[in-house]
Amino acid sequence: MDIEPVNITAKAVIEVKNIMDNKGIPKDYALRIGIKGGGCGAMGYVIGFDKANDADISYSQENIPIVIDKKHVMYLIGLEVDFIEESDARGFSFNKPGNN
């Protein structure tokens, strides 16, 4: 694939690799990034591990295989996935320029 719709920050790469290594994620699974409908027309983002299928585009970043449903790509272009670890919050965060 010529374009990487989603960018994963260095902190998120470390956490994804940690999860893949320590949580028994099968080697044939990829990081799946997608969208879900939210209340009042809002859209949310989802992240998890899954096998690729024919309806996906796939690419890799920092040796992490990534899959995205082709129907979701246009909504994800420019998305940045980060990992936040603070005293009161820990987890993946999603930032898309222009979505305030």
TrEMBL record:
Name this polypeptide is given: Iron-sulfur cluster assembly protein
Family assignment from sequence similarity: Belongs to the HesB/IscA family.
Signal peptide per UniProt: none
GO cellular component, one term: cytoplasm
Domain Core: 6-97
NCBIfam families: iron-sulfur cluster assembly accessory protein
InterPro entries: ATAP, ATAP_core_dom, Fe-S_cluster_asmbl/transfer, HesB-like_dom_sf
Source species, domain of life: Bacteria
GO molecular function terms attached to this record: 2 iron, 2 sulfur cluster binding
Lineage, uppermost ranks: Bacteria, Pseudomonadati, Bacteroidota, Cytophagia, Cytophagales
Example GO BP: iron-sulfur cluster assembly
